[in-house]
Amino acid sequence: MRQSQITEWCHFMIRSQAVEGGTYIDGTMGNGHDTLLLCELAGKKGSVWAFDVQEQALRNTKALLAEHGYDGRVQLIQDGHENMDHYLEPESADVVCFNFGYLPGGDHQIATRPETSLAAVQKGLEILKRGGMMSLCLYSGGETGFEEKEKLLACLKELPSGKYTVIVNEYYNRRNCPPLPVFIFKS
Ligand SMILES: C[S@@+](CC[C@H](N)C(=O)[O-])C[C@H]1O[C@@H](n2cnc3c(N)ncnc32)[C@H](O)[C@@H]1O
Questions:
Q1: Whole-model pTM?
Q2: How far is the centre of ligand 1, averaged over its atoms, from the C-alpha of 162 (Å)?
Q3: What is the pLDDT of residues 133-181, one digit of tens each?
Q4: Which of 171, 179, 94, 76 shows the shortest CA–CA distance to 130?
Q5: Which of 29, 88, 93, 139 is the most buried (most CB within 10 A)?
């Protein structure tokens, strides 16, 4: 199965929601793999906004995008995703994605945190258009702990079902705290 890893599965779902010329947000830029996908989906007429707190993430992403010929079409912002409402209007984005945790190959101490992740998801849902989708890669155990995942899931459980459909996928037969892909559709 080609979509067996969480990032591949999330990319598959994000692709299914692609809108030519749309607005895409990557809330956790990291090494730029999600930003790269969003640039491809946005095409020449769309826009991509990517956030990370680490300069290293911006450097790595810039290099990856340049390698693929996407420089100039994306806003790489060194700021916390909890501030995304400073940059984007309500109901302006087609897709918002988050891949929580730490920068692979970077400092594991600089990871996403429960309070800021929660604020970012709440703001992201406001910024999402009706008909748009938010994709979340949630991790737990190890250095990340469980608090972030539990806080986010508790909040998502309370979202009004008339406005949001929340789908939580599960790696049902995997041991040792498998990652959790979550998709939120706004109507
Ligand atoms: C798992 S990585 C993201 C992977 C990335 N999407 C990719 O394709 O490589 C998580 C990233 O979240 C970033 N991060 C931590 N706190 C953040 C915050 N408040 N706002 C935005 N990014 C944050 C980390 O610096 C790290 O680069």
A1: 0.97
A2: 31
A3: 999 999 998 776 799 999 999 999 999 999 999 999 999 999 999 999 9
A4: 94
A5: 29
Query: In the chain, what is the greatest distance between 2 CA atoms, to the nearest angstrom?
Result: 43
Q: Please work out whether the CB of residue 61 comes within 6 Å of at least one atom of ligand 1.
A: no
The finding on whether 51 has its CB within 6 A of some atom of ligand 1 is: yes
Sign of the four-CA dihedral 89, 93, 99, 102: negative
Is 73 touching ligand 1 by the criterion CB < 6 Å? no
Residue at 58: amino acid letter: L
Per-residue model confidence (pLDDT) at position 21:
93
Mutate-to-test residue for ligand 1 from 52, 135, 180, highest number of ligand atoms within 8 A of CB: 52
Domains within the chain, CATH numbers bracketed? 6-13+21-104+118-181 (3.40.50.150)
Residue with tokens 């990340």: 144
